[in-house]
Amino acid sequence: MDEKSDFCRDIFTALGLSTGAAVALGLSRFAYGLLLPPMQVDLQWTYVEAGALNTANGAGYIVGALVAAWLARRWGTARAFLAGFSVSVLVLLLTAMTASLSALIMLRTVGGVSTAVTFILGAGLVSAICPLENPRRRGVLVGVYVAGVSMGVILAGMALPIILREGAQRWPEGWTVLGVLGAAGLPAAWLAARQVQQPAGGTMALLNARECRRIAPTLIGYGVFGAGYVGYMTFIMALLQEQGGSSEQMIWFWFTLGLVSAVTNLLWGRVLGAFNDGRGPALVFATAMLGTLPVLLYPGPMAMFLSAILFGGSFMAGPTSITIVAQRQLSAASWTAAISLLTVGFALGQTIGPILAGAISDVAGSIEAGFWVSPLLLAIAACVNLLQRPPVPAESPALAGKSS
Cross-referenced Pfam families, in alphabetical order (predicted)? Predict the structure, then answer.
C-alpha cells in the first residue's frame, strides 16, 4: 500500500512538472505551426522568413541548453526551472505585441533560451523523483512529464482555431491566449518542484570526455532527429493547406496529433524503459519517419489522419527515449548535464531543419519539395542511434547506486 501511494505521489509530482514541458514545447514551439499560416498571410512572409522564426528559436534553445546545467548548479534546479518557466510565459505574451520581423526573431530567440532551461531542468527534476528505482518506473515518470507537451499541443489546437476563424489578422490574440494558458500552469509547477530533492552528489555542470563518448551515437542521432521532426511540425499545416485541406480537417488533424501523442507517450515510457541501448530511440525515430510519408505519397484526408496518428504517436517519445538512455548510461549526478548536452545537439538540428526546408520550398515553388527533408533526416537518425551500445556493467549507474 505504501509503495502504491508513493508511486501515486510520484505521478502527481511528474504531472505538476509536466506543465513546464507543456509551455516549453507544446505552447511555445509547436503552436507556431498553427499560427504560421495566418502570420505568413498577414505579414506577407516568404517560407524562409517563416522558417527563420523557428531557426531563431532553435538558436536560443542551443544557448539555453548550454547554460541549463550551470544555472541549476548556481541557483538550484527547482529555482532555475521556475525562472525559465516564467520567462517563457512572458515571451508568449510579448509576442502578441509586435508585427516587426526583427522583434519577433529576438523574442523567439529569448524564448528558445528560456524554454530550453525549462524543459531540460524539468526533465532533470523528474529523473530525480526516484533516481534509484527500477528503470520501467523511471520510464513511466519521464513519459508522464513529456506527455505535458502533448497536452500543450491539444490546448493550442482547441483554442487557436476558434480565434483564427475571424481572420488571419487575429494571430496576436492567439499568442496572448497561449501566454495565459502557460501562466495557468505555473502554480502546479511550483508545488511539484518543491517536492523533488536533488540527486545525491549534486548536479554536474559538464560531462567528462569518457561520458561524452559513451552517449555519442545518441547525441548525433538526436541532433539529426531534431532537424527532421521540426521541419514537419513547422510546415505541416501549410502543406495541408496547400493540398486543399479544409479548416475543419486541419483542426481535427492537430487535435488528433496532440491526443495520440499524449496517450502513446505514456505507453512509450514503459516500452523504452526495457531497452538499455540505442534501439529505443531508433524505434521512435523510425516510427516518426513513417508518419511523415502519408501526406507526401497519398495527399488527402485519410493520409492526413494516418500521419497524425503515426507521427503524433512517436515524435514526443524522442525526448523520453534519450532521457532514458542518459539515465541508463550515466550516474544520477550527470543526468542534468547529459540532458543539456543532448539538447544542444537537438537544438542544432532544429536550427537547420526549418531554414533548409523553407529554402528548398522557396526555390522549388512548392512546400512539398522541402517537406521531403523530414523523412530523410528521420531515417538517418534511426540508423545512427542503432550504434549506441548498452552501458558497461561495471560502470552501470544502478550498480553504482547499490555500491554507495
Answer: MFS_4
3-state secondary structure of 269: helix
Coil/strand/helix, residue 76: coil
- The C-alpha angle with vertex 92 and arms to 195 and 354, in degrees rounded to 5, equals 105
- Please report where in the chains the cell 495527399 appears, as a residue: 299
Helices 317-329 and 279-292, packing angle to 10 deg:
170
**pTM listed for this prediction:** 0.76
Angstrom distances, CA of residue 385 to CA of 132, 215, 217, 311: 25, 10, 5, 18
- For residues 297 and 385, what is the distance between their CA atoms, to the nearest angstrom? 26
Q: What integer pLDDT is reported at residue 110 of this predicted model?
A: 96
Question: Is the separation of the CB atoms in 35 and 207 below 8 Å?
Answer: no
Q: How many other β-carbons are positioned within 10 Å of the β-carbon of residue 41?
A: 14
HSE value, Cβ hemisphere, 13 Å, CA-based, for 240: 30
Question: Per-residue pLDDT averaged across 1-14, rounded?
Answer: 76
Nearest to 374 by CA among 291, 300, 256: 291
Contact partners, residue 144, CB within 8 Å, separation at least 6: 11, 14, 15, 18, 126, 266, 269
Helices (H), 293-334: 294-297, 301-312, 317-329
Tell me how far apart the alpha carbons of residues 382 and 283 are, in angstroms, rounded to a whole number.
7
- What's the pLDDT score for residue 198? 66
Picking from 305, 286, 285, the residue whose alpha carbon sits closest to that of residue 295 is: 305
| Helix, strand and coil in the chain, % to nearest 5 | 85, 0, 15
* Amino acid, single-letter form, for residue 163: I
Burial class (CB in 10 A: 0-12, 13-18, 19+), 316: buried
